[in-house]
Amino acid sequence: MFTIQPLIAGNYYHIYNKGVNGVNLFYSPDNYQYFLRKYDEHIDPIADTFAWCLLGNHFHLLVRIKEVEEVVIEEISNRGRKALTGFQTLSGVEKDEKLSQFASKSFSNLFNAYAQALNKQRGRQGTLFERPFRRKLVDSERYFRQLVVYIHSNPVHHGFTDNYKDYPWSSYGSIVSAKSTKLNRNQVLDWFDGKGNFVDTHRQIIDFDFIDHLVIE
Questions:
Q1: CA-to-CA distance for 173 and 195, rounded, in angstroms?
Q2: Side by side, which strands form the sheet with 134-138?
């Protein structure tokens, strides 16, 4: 068993999970796109996203839970507004605790919404994702950089592609692109000291031993 860490405002986390008993989560491009749409709906209001990758039967995310003052209550879904009823009248500590609970609930809502849609499409029943979803605190710049490269390298590590640049369901392309994105591209590039170093670092052999305990098999 592992200890379930609360999602604390202002902290960075590696969020990851897989299908229960290794079952696939994604079968077609429409599945990947639907997950990303639901991700924007449920997670964008409460977290900044720095890297992500969706792979067959599992996924990886690198996020930062927003501070209380960064959460725009009006932009949260109706369910979210209900969950945060009376939020503005709470004390600082109470707000942090309630936002932490709401952040965890938002991820659960994402997974539940996606599971319901996929179950209906595939004619299946029951749990889709392992529970609870995994999260690990990212507490250093080295960890952040290694994790970004690890997430983008995961399709190669699991045999989905020979070149991480070609894999369509990760954030690598959005980070090196100039196109509009909700991803926190500029902060990622700042942590790598610019796009050139970001690209070069991805070409190098990363220290998988440093984050080997994060690998989902």
A1: 12
A2: 47-55, 58-65, 12-18, 134-138
CA distance 66 to 109: 18
> For residue 5, is it within any domain?
no
Sign of CA dihedral 89, 92, 97, 100: positive
| Strand-pair partners of 49 | 63
Instruction: Give the residues across from 54 on adjacent strands.
Output: 59
Is pLDDT at 82 greater than 80 in this prediction?
A: no
Q: What integer is the mean pLDDT of 29-41?
A: 96
pLDDT of residue 216 exceeding 90: no
Q: Is position 217 within any domain?
A: no
**Of residues 215 and 167, more confidently modeled:** 167
Q: What is the CATH number of the domain that holds 193?
A: 3.30.70.1290
Can you tell me the mean pLDDT for 152-160? 89
pLDDT (0 to 100) of residue 5: 82
Nearest by Cα to 167 from 18, 32, 23, 40 = 32
Pairing relationship of beta strands 134-138 and 12-18 according to DSSP bridges: antiparallel
Element (DSSP H or E) covering residue 29: helix 29-42
User: What pTM did the predictor assign?
Assistant: 0.88
